[in-house]
Write a structure and sequence with these properties.
Helix content: 10-25%
Order of helices and strands: EHHEEEEHEHEEEEEEHEEH
Radius of gyration: 20 Å
Number of strands: 14
Largest sheet: 9 strands, mixed
Strand content: 15-25%
Distance between the termini: 52 Å
């Protein structure tokens, strides 16, 4: 890695990760690094597993294995416009609403210098709000890399300030579709502050912490699929990993979410379809906000993408598939 400054991260493999491939495990533990980027680090000799002489990406981990990873220090670079296709749901002088695909990072960061939503927006939009700075122009809120769905982006500073106020004052409605392990009760309300996990800086936690911030998650609709539950989830707050952390905290992690316990090594045959997931089953289906200039209330939705739909089609009997998204209107927040 030349003259770049390097940092070293150390991991001890927990019992629940035993049998997992090295590259898959590290991709779930190291923020903003994809599996292919982890594989490149391994190939270049920047990853060492204590139990093996020659570390390879497909090493099967054992509980207690010590892993050392050498990473380059984050570098700051001005994003460049890239001709990346975008599913644009709405576009005017003030805002643009997009349906972000899974696998796309919202803005450049360590391990993801380009190929982000910001890079794509710079190609499709002539001007973006400067409030977010060079790295995050126009970005008012974010979705995790593995989460697909609806996002709004500000195209000027007035729109950015007003949208930021609406998010802060909890005037924006955000509803997600999720698949969680176990049976989750409809109308379940989770009110637990979220903060950075002191034992793993990649993760968030609901453990008590003076710096944790309040967060409320509500299950507005649920359908039991015999071992997993299909949910609609509304959030008033928007903390990092909020839905993933909250559902994991009550014992129902999102299916496919390796970081928060949602990947199971042994899956009952009727649920084998979930093993096809390469990301958490989480999709931002609906977003409603007030237009910053016209004051009109706008609402946008994006259907569950093909990869998640394919899993559902195997989990739900064909004669019931047309009704699985039947729902009751979401209740307002207290």
């Amino acid at each position: 890695m030349g003259l770049e400054r390097l940092t070293r991260q150390l991991f001890t493999v927990p019992a629940e990760a035993e049998g997992e491939r090295l590259d898959r495990y590290l991709a779930s533990e190291i923020a903003n690094y994809s599996r292919s980027q982890i594989q490149r680090l391994i190939d270049e000799g920047h990853v060492v597993c204590s139990r093996v002489k020659h570390t390879k990406a497909n090493v099967q981990l054992r509980e207690g294995d010590k892993i050392a990873v050498t990473l380059p220090e984050p570098t700051v670079a001005t994003p460049v416009a890239q001709d990346i296709p975008l599913d644009i749901l709405f576009d005017d002088h003030d805002v643009i609403v997009v349906n972000k695909p899974s696998g796309m990072v919202v803005h450049p960061a360590a391990g993801n210098p380009d190929g982000t939503l910001v890079n794509a927006l710079l190609h499709h939009v002539k001007d973006l709000s400067g409030i977010g700075g060079e790295i995050r122009p126009g970005i008012v809120h974010r979705l995790d890399k593995g989460t697909s769905g609806v996002m709004v982006v500000a195209k000027n500073d007035m729109a950015h300030q007003e949208l930021a106020r609406q998010f802060h004052d909890r005037e924006v409605e955000k509803e997600y579709v999720a698949l969680a392990w176990g049976l989750v009760q409809q109308r379940k309300r989770i009110n637990a502050a979220i903060g950075r996990d002191p034992k793993n800086r990649v993760k968030m936690t609901t453990r008590r912490d003076d710096r944790a911030r309040s967060a409320v998650t509500r299950v507005t609709w649920a359908r039991d699929l015999k071992g997993v539950t299909l949910l609609r989830v509304a959030i008033a707050t928007g903390r990092t990993h909020q839905i993933r952390v909250h559902l994991s905290a009550i014992g129902h992690p999102i299916v496919g979410d390796a970081l928060y316990g949602g990947v199971h090594r042994r899956v009952p045959h009727p649920l084998r379809a979930v093993t096809k997931l390469t990301r958490p089953f989480l999709h931002a289906e609906r977003l409603a906000f007030t237009h910053p200039r016209t004051r009109e209330r706008l609402e946008f939705s994006a259907s569950v993408p093909a990869d998640l739909e394919a899993v559902l089609m195997e989990l739900v009997p064909e004669d019931q598939y047309g009704s699985i998204f039947a729902q009751q209107p979401a209740e307002s927040d207290d």
